[in-house]
Design brief:
Helix content: 40-55%
Distance between the termini: 75 Å
Number of strands: 10
Mean pLDDT: 95
Structural class: alpha/beta
Oligomer: single chain
Radius of gyration: 26 Å
Low-confidence stretches: 1-8
Shape: globular
Strand order of the largest sheet: 3-2-1-4-5-6-7
Number of helices: 20
């Protein structure tokens, strides 16, 4: 390969190091949009393979060494890192940072933990190098044809980088690029993490709807596929509903059985859902829908535990009569929609809480706008979420938006009926149930937390506040009479 060590050879507008499928597709996407792209991989054979197979798609500058790769980049240098999160990312940064100059930027396009991104951004900032944590959603296809991109980092870095990212991003139906500057340091990777958490919840709710249609309505997968196709023409219109119909309609070539019946019922996970739940706990933000989705995947993989409990008693799963099944399917659609709105509301609450804590200044409406295309949770109703926050940037929860509140209010009778029917038939619906419990907890005038705090004061002197006067109090428990004292 030709060397590009001479500054006169600095012709690439952007570079990508790490040429597995995501990195290769991202580099090809830049090239397809007319940008000269420097490409590098720790194993040079992968770089050669990219050029041999896809070199005709645009202008690539292959580089075998880190020095040649950096020398190929125009200033300010834009270096996209597409390697595994954690140690491998740190190793790449340690290799390339000494070769860069103030004003250059390193862009981490992997699924990094936002705390790592904050650490890296602070360290590189001291050296005058911009570090951009860019969440990229859409999988392999999105990386090639247009993902949703969530870059964090300094405003200065976005001035130089943003136009390139917006160029390769997906576009919403109104023509808006699905890419926007999210906020400083780890804001982009935080928002991407929450996106993935919402994705977990969305997929769990869809799976529960399938389970109910299968074991309560008595529908076969092909009919459920048609039901989902019908739902996809209405308010549930989304990428996940669309692909659900495709999966359910697929027949296994080897057995002739429905594909979904030959797949082991163990759902794996890469960790971003767990990060979302762990981070929510750290911030004190309830994301019960996401948490139940993560736990459901964990439980699905607990083979020995499930086998040991399989003979536990419970109700028989006798399907409903045909007429009742049709009405039940319509109620499931309402329950799915209401639960979905709750899960998205929880995700937005989490983003808002983190934005306030870290002083990120995230525009919640803009987050919805860039998720309208390219990403896994893209859905028609995201434009309504964008509009809700555009109308009221201080909206405390999506459930307080009048339009969404009215819809959920209209759906709640069916929602409650579906959860009750699921319980009566012994079909687990942790996502539907958790969403409904969250909804009822928000609307309750008083919660039993008063009793919980009283218990904490009894055994640990943790004190409590009163409803009738200011101050913090502790009761001296024990004996015939308890005595209250102001703390």
């Amino acid at each position: 390969m030709p060397s590009t060590s001479d500054d006169t050879q600095a012709t690439a507008r952007i570079g990508v190091t790490g040429l597995a499928v995501m990195g290769s597709n991202l580099a090809r996407n830049f090239a397809r949009h007319g940008h000269t792209v420097a490409v590098h991989n720790r194993t040079p054979t992968r770089t050669r393979a990219l050029i041999e197979e896809f070199g005709h798609e645009g202008d690539f500058v292959p580089a075998e060494s880190a020095q040649d790769f950096v020398a190929a980049l125009e200033r300010p240098r834009r270096l996209v890192v597409m390697v595994k999160a954690g140690g491998p990312t740190d190793a790449v940064i340690e290799e390339f940072a000494p070769l860069l100059e103030p004003g250059d930027m390193i862009i981490d396009g992997g699924n990094a933990h936002f705390a790592d991104t904050r650490r890296r951004e602070a360290a590189l900032r001291e050296r005058g190098i911009h570090f951009v944590g860019a969440g990229i959603s859409g999988g392999e296809e999105g990386a090639l044809n247009g993902p949703s991109i969530m870059p964090g980092g300094s405003p200065e870095s976005y001035e130089a980088l943003g136009p390139l990212l917006e160029d390769i991003a997906a576009t919403a139906e109104d023509g808006t690029p699905c890419c926007a500057h999210i906020g400083p340091d780890g804001a982009g990777h935080f928002v991407k993490m929450v996106h993935n958490g919402i994705e977990y919840a969305d997929m769990q709710l869809i799976a529960e709807a399938y389970d109910l249609l299968r074991h309560v309505a008595g529908y076969e997968p092909a009919r459920i596929a048609e039901t989902f196709r019908t739902w996809n023409t209405g308010r549930l219109d989304s990428y996940l509903i669309e692909i659900t119909a495709e999966v359910l309609a697929h027949t296994d070539a080897a057995t002739g059985r429905p594909f979904v019946d030959v797949v082991a019922d163990e759902a794996e996970q890469k960790g971003t859902g767990r990060w979302t739940v762990q981070t929510a706990l750290d911030h004190g933000v309830p994301v019960s829908g996401i948490a139940e989705a993560v736990f459901a995947r964990s439980l699905s993989g607990a083979s020995a535990l499930r086998e040991a409990a399989r003979t536990l008693p419970g109700p028989k799963r006798d399907p409903l009569p045909a007429e009742e099944a049709t009405a039940f399917a319509a109620r499931v659609e309402e329950a799915l929609y209401a639960s979905k709105v709750v899960s998205y509301a929880q995700g937005w609450n989490m983003i808002g809480a983190a934005s306030a804590e870290y002083d990120w200044g995230i525009d919640l409406g803009r987050v919805a706008a860039i998720w309208r295309g390219g990403c896994i949770i893209r859905a028609a109703f995201l434009d309504r979420i964008r509009s809700a926050f555009a109308t009221d940037p201080g909206l405390p929860t999506l459930l307080a938006d009048r339009a969404f509140a009215d819809e959920i209010g209209a759906a709640q009778e069916s929602w409650r009926a579906v959860v009750g029917t699921a319980v009566a038939h012994g079909v687990p619906t942790p996502g539907f149930s958790a969403a409904l419990a969250y909804y009822d907890a928000l609307r309750a005038e008083r919660l039993p937390a008063a009793l919980t705090q009283g218990q904490r004061d009894f055994f640990g002197a943790h004190t409590y506040r009163r409803t009738d006067r200011d101050g913090t109090y502790h009761t001296l428990w024990g004996g015939d009479r308890a005595e209250e004292r102001r703390d």
